[in-house]
Amino acid sequence: MELSHRKKIMDYEGMEFPSKTYKDIVLEPAYDQAKVNFVRPMLQIHFAHLIMLVEEGIVNQDDATKIVEAIKKINIEEFKKSEYNSSYEDLFFEIEHILMEEAGDIAGNLHIARSRNDMGIAIYRMNLRERTLNLINGALHLHKSLIDLTEEHIDTVMIGYTHTQQAQPTTLGHYFNAMTDLLSRDMKRLISSFETVNRSSLGAAALTTSGFSINRQRVQQILAFDEMIDNAWDAVAGADYIGETATAVQLAGINLGRSTQDFLLWGTQEFGAFKLFAPYVQISSIMPQKQNPVSIEHMRGLLSSVVGDSQTVLTMMHNTPFGDIVDTEDDMQPYMWNAMEKLQKIYYLMSSVLMTMDVNRSKLLERAQGSFANVTELADTLVRTNHLSFRKAHEIVSSAVKGLTDKGQESLDAFTLKHLNEHAEKVIGSKLNLTEEEFKNTLDPKHFVDIRELEGGPSPKRMKKTIEKRYEEHNVFAKWLDEKRKSLDSVDKNIEDILQSWVTND
C-alpha cells in the first residue's frame, strides 16, 4: 500500500526538474512576478556590467557590441505576456539562453565575475527604490492636502480629546497639523529606508567577490546607486534593507489608521463634525436614511492589510540563516510591494476624502462653548489673579465642576461665578478675586485657543507661522524626491550615451 502511494506521487510529480507541485506552487508564481517587475532592471544591470567589463579590458569591445545588440532585441513588454517555461529554472536563465542564441557563446562572458546572488539582490533593490519613490510621492500628495486643510481650518474651534474624553478646546487645523507632522516623520523614515535600499550589491558575486579585477564602483555609478555595499557577504545576505522598508511602511500604516478611527467617529450623526462628499458614501439597501462612510471604512481595513503584509516581511526574515537564502527573496518581495501599493493608493484616497468633506464648523464651536473642556483656563486664571498655587486652583475648579455633574448638569450653562465662589469658600475659605467678565472670558473656547501662542499651540497667530514652516518643509521633501527621480530616470540615457560613444570612437 505504501509503495503504491509513493509510486502515484512520483508518477504525478514526474522524474525531472521541476516537479509539478514545485512548479505550480513556487517557480511559476515567482516567474509571473519576475517577468513583470524584473526584466527592465535585469537588462540595465546587463548593460552596466558589460560596460564595466569592457572598460576594465576583461571583454573586448567587438564582442561586447554583439552582446549589446542581443540585449536590445529583448522586448520588455512582450516578456510581460510570456508564460513559464520549465526548460529554464527562472527568468535569469531564460534571458541568458536568449542572449546566447542571439550573440553566440560570447554572451556567456556577460556572467564573468557575477552571480545570480549579487545580481538578484540588486534587482530587488532597484525595484524597491522605484516603489519607495512612488510611495513618497503619494505621501507628499496627502502632506500638501493636510497643510492646506490646516490653513483652511486655522480657526475652526473644536474640542480635543484625550482618553476618548473631552479634554481642551483646540482647532481642527491644529489636528490636521498634527497629522502633517506625523506624516513628515513617516516620510523621513521612508527616505531613510530609500538610502539603505539604494546601495549596490553588484560585484559581490556569490558571497566572496571575484578573482577578476572588476570595478564595482563603476557599476554602482552607472545604475544610480548612491553607495556600494562593501562586504560581499553582507551584500547578498543583509536583508535588512527590505526589513527597514517594511518597518517604515508598517508604522506609516499604523499612524494613518489612528486618524481613520477618529474620522469614522467624528462622521457619526451623534458627533456631527462633518459629512463626506457624495462620491465617498454608499446608501443602505434597506434603510433610506443611511449614508455609510465606506470610503473611510475601506481605508481602515486596507491599512490593517498594509500592517499585516509588512509584518509578513519581517516574520519571513526572522530566524533565517545569514546568507543568500530564498526566504528573503522571491517569496517575500510581493508582500512588500502589496503593502506599498496599497498605502500609496490610500494616501491619494485619504487626500480626496478630506479635501471634499463638509465640516460643520458651527456645531463644533457650539459643542466647545457648552463644554467643561474650557475650565483649564479658569484654573490658570485663578493662579494669575488670586496668586493661588495651580494645584489649589485646580481643586477649586474641579470641585465646582463635580458639584454640577453630580446633579446631572453636563453643560456650562449652569456654571456661574456664584457657584465657583461657593466651592472656593469650601477649599480656601474665601471668595475669589475674579470679575464676571473675567470669569466668562475664561470659559470662552475662542479665548482659550487664542492665548495659546507657544510653539506647537493652536492659536491662529502661532499656526500661521507653523503653516509657513510646513510649506517650506514640504518643498524640501519635494525637491529631494525630484532629484532622486531624475537620478533613477537617467540610468537608461547614461547607458545609451556610453554605448553610443563606442560607435563614435570607432
UniProtKB/TrEMBL annotation:
Keywords: Amino-acid biosynthesis, Arginine biosynthesis, Cytoplasm, Lyase. Pathway: Amino-acid biosynthesis; L-arginine biosynthesis; L-arginine from L-ornithine and carbamoyl phosphate: step 3/3. It catalyses: 2-(N(omega)-L-arginino)succinate = fumarate + L-arginine. InterPro entries: Arg_succ_lyase_C, Argininosuccinate_lyase, Fumarase/histidase_N, Fumarate_lyase_fam, Fumarate_lyase_N, L-Aspartase-like. Residues 101-308 form the Fumarate lyase N-terminal domain. It is found in: Cytoplasm. It comes from the Bacteria. Its main location: cytoplasm. It holds the Pfam family ASL_C2. Residues 372-450 form the Argininosuccinate lyase C-terminal domain. One of its GO terms (molecular function) is lyase activity. Its EC number is 4.3.2.1. Belongs to the lyase 1 family. Argininosuccinate lyase subfamily. HAMAP family: Arg_succ_lyase. This is Argininosuccinate lyase. The lineage of its organism: Bacteria, Bacillati, Bacillota, Bacilli, Bacillales. The gene is argH_2.
